Amino acid sequence: MIPITSRLPRLDELVEEVAVSVNINGINHAVMMATPDDLDDFAIGFLFGEGIIGGNHDVHDIQSTPSEHGIVLDITIANRCLAALGQRKRRLAGASGCGICGVEAMEHALPALTPLPVAAPFDTGRLRDLRERIAPWQCKARQSGALHAALALDERGAILACREDIGRHNALDKLIGMQLRQPVRAATLAITSRCGSELIHKAVQFGAAHLISLASPSQLAVRLALKYNLTLIHVPRSDAPVCYASPRAQDQFGDSHVQSY
């Protein structure tokens, strides 16, 4: 038998996960499983990613109330945003119908976005120790593990802020929500999780110039990043960073470290 040398964690040391009910102007919109931290940031980032609000200015109030089964987020948004909410609910209702609705569901899953301006390349040499620098920012992960992180970086690669959640989408929503509440937004975001197409969409919609991932991206994620002029950088555990950048970036800036595809 293999001896057990480490103690089992106590229940209160494990990551928290609760049902978060998102109510908008008194209407239940969604229930998300999330880590119950930074929920104001989550509310703003989630509604922004859903296309319901255009920014922090569209949110008038957020009330968080514990319930028997989790947490209720009552969010009051500007009346002008209610049309977008109604349109989204109609699309969701249609997605459960007949064949043509499947096409509409696909369009909703991969919505068309406005391409970003071509940004100056990011110096990937500043990212070689990124994993080590991220670790102290992941306070919850150090205690319980099993948590994803999303971070904001400045132009020199220094970490400005971090948000954590058991869900990788939630972590990025929290970070984007926090950034939307700041007078100046970071142009570079980083994620510790697998980089799929949904996270590319969130980063493009936010307006990030660069997205850095500690996990390898999917083929679709790379294609979407190139389509929308988002520079996607994968930082492997041992090898040098891999930069997926639009050929337009290399044509415009002529930087030798930009890999175009």
Automatic annotation (TrEMBL):
Coiled coil: none annotated. This is Sulfur carrier protein FdhD. Keywords: Cytoplasm, Molybdenum cofactor biosynthesis, Transferase. The active site is at residue 98. One of its GO terms (cellular component) is cytoplasm. It is found in: Cytoplasm. It comes from Aeromonas taiwanensis. Its main location: cytoplasm. Required for formate dehydrogenase (FDH) activity. Acts as a sulfur carrier protein that transfers sulfur from IscS to the molybdenum cofactor prior to its insertion into FDH. GO terms for molecular function: sulfur carrier activity; sulfurtransferase activity. Belongs to the FdhD family. InterPro entries: Cytidine_deaminase-like, FdhD. One of its GO terms (biological process) is Mo-molybdopterin cofactor biosynthetic process.
